[in-house]
Amino acid sequence: MSAIAARVASLGTENAFRIGEDIAKAKQRGVDVIRLTLGEPDFDTAPHITEAARASLARGDTHYVDPQGILPFRKAAAAHIARTRGIEVSPDDVVALPGAKPAIAYSFLAYVNPGDEVVYPSPGFPIYESWVTFLGAKPVPLVLREEKAFAFEPAELEALLTPRTKLLILCSPSNPTGGVLSPQVLEGVARVIERKAGPDLRIFSDEIYEDLTYDGFRHASIASLPGMRERTVIATGLSKSFAMTGWRMGYAVLPNAAEARLFKQLNINYVSCVAPFVQEAAREALESPKSAGAVAAMREEFRRRRDVVVPALNEIPGVRCNLPLGAFYVFPNVEGVCRSLGVHAFHASLPKDRRAATSPATLFQRFLLYYHGVAVVDRRSFGVLGSEGQDFVRLSIAADLPTLKKGLERFAKAASDADGFRRFTGDAEALGV
Ligand code: PLP
């Protein structure tokens, strides 16, 4: 007997949050830490949006509201998705959620039985894999590779689909890679699904970074393609586009009103409703003509930083980094650094259980933090399955340029600090395994 239910053992986490404990420990050891781990814009919410919330509060919008979301918000969200994806959306298909994240949980709860297969990107947002294991579903990672700019070939997906596949997760632009799925790839995916998938397969399309794309790339949704709207849950929200992470405001567009009612029922069971003044702010963000300028300014700043950070990373011997077309992350390959520092050899020398609990990229990430004061996130934090042999770390560029430059200088120093790495291998706290 245990006080804790057995299922909790299979629940994963999001290390970008958990890494805070290690940052605190490193700081206690006197390390000055530059934090490049954050998955949120380093901008404030635009004033016209906060003002809408204030006005709503002043009107007394402090009560429970429709668990599906207030109609003005759902109308604004439906109009936004209809316009940007070129599809028909009714406010009855929209459910307001406290962030985009609950859409992941709700999709698993609504569509996936234990034993069903779920295809999801690896590397990908860690919460996908967490829910697969939590529900006792079968994880089927779709491994994204650097050579494909972290997209995939439709044929690779086809090889993974079986009659038992219930959920296919797509995420574009991607966390952690910044990679995007082009209209051509999406068309290939749609054809594969039409050919190979059963009628009950749902697509979960995570489009939270929809507004953060660069170099002329325009976000494309699988739901825009013929036959796909009927089986796709579009999950998106305000957190990234409008720098509103702390507001907890997202939404899902369901394939039909009946499935939206299911999400509404899940809201009733979990959260009752999203705060009405937060929904008012979101409505304003989606409808106000002032928003486009605020989003564009943030996007331009991210692009500027990306164009400094990626070339600087590529100058570090042993580092190779793609230019991401979306989101605000860069995802360098650090295999060469791991080789020259002896990280692989050290990893291979660990006893089996300790070796399995870490990876070369994880060891490098911890070395960077504890010995060089740069906090990044390792590849394994974005899905353990499919991570073998992939030596990558994620840097968030949601930090100002002077901070990023300082971080890059430290990164470069760490990359050639073989003596430091040898010391690190004898430092139990820093190793963490
Ligand atoms: N999906 C992806 C791919 C993300 O990166 C994030 C946040 O980091 C979320 C969903 C969750 O967004 P929210 O903060 O709106 O719940």
Short description:
It is built from 17 helices and twelve strands. The protein has 433 residues and is α/β, with parallel strands linked by helices.
For the structure shown, list the relevant keywords.
Aspartate Aminotransferase, domain 1; 7-stranded mixed β-sheet; 433 residues; 44% helix; binds pyridoxal-5'-phosphate
Protein described:
It is a single chain. This protein has 433 residues and is an alpha/beta fold. It is built from 17 helices and 12 strands. It has 2 domains: 6-43 and 293-431, Alpha-Beta Complex (Aspartate Aminotransferase, domain 1); 48-290, Type I PLP-dependent aspartate aminotransferase-like (Major domain) (Aspartate Aminotransferase, domain 2, 3-Layer(aba) Sandwich), CATH 3.40.640. 44% of the residues lie in helices and 12% in strands. It has a 7-stranded mixed beta sheet with strand order 2-8-7-6-5-3-4, sandwiched between helices. A 3-stranded antiparallel beta sheet has the order 9-12-11. It has a two-stranded parallel ribbon with strand order 1-10. Helix 5 links the parallel strand 3 and strand 4. Bound molecules: pyridoxal-5'-phosphate. Pyridoxal-5'-phosphate (PLP) binds at residues 39, 99-101, 125, 171, 175, 206, 208, 237, 239, 245, 250.
